[in-house]
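Quick one before lunch.
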Amino acid sequence: MKKEDCIFCKIVQGELPSRTIYEDGDFRVILDLKPVTRGHALILAREHADNLYELPEETAGKAMILARRLAGIFREKLHCDGLNLMQNNGEVAGQTVTHFHLHMIPRYEGDGQEINLVPGEATQEELEAVRKQITE
Ligand code: 5GP
Ligand code: ZN
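Model of the guanosine-5'-monophosphate complex:
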């Protein structure tokens, strides 16, 4: 279902222009307006879901299959050296557009970009406490 005032719903429906590189019944894949690298693309779910929590599992599975297929095409056509998949959920995680999308970010030797998450420290006890919290 389309959500009023959702910019990605409008793009998916073709009501706002985009550089579309792929379309099917479930997704429209567009080039990001502010690419972090050459070829930065967004896999947009056709049906509005705010984020991964709301996305039907079947669509989530299809999104990853599509990413896998596009990864090969990007490597072949853009000659990228690597690829980041990124998917943000919630403001705290950096989500700025509240409509499910999966970033495909081709990486090139010397592209100057970095993923700035800093590894921390955890004791074995802390790791075990987290494991229990998630699994029990
Ligand atoms: P988020 O931060 O929500 O994970 O990512 C949103 C992305 O959408 C950003 O990379 C931003 O550049 C991109 N974006 C925002 N508005 C538009 C738009 O109107 N058209 C396109 N093609 N990309 C957009
Ligand atoms: Zn939407």
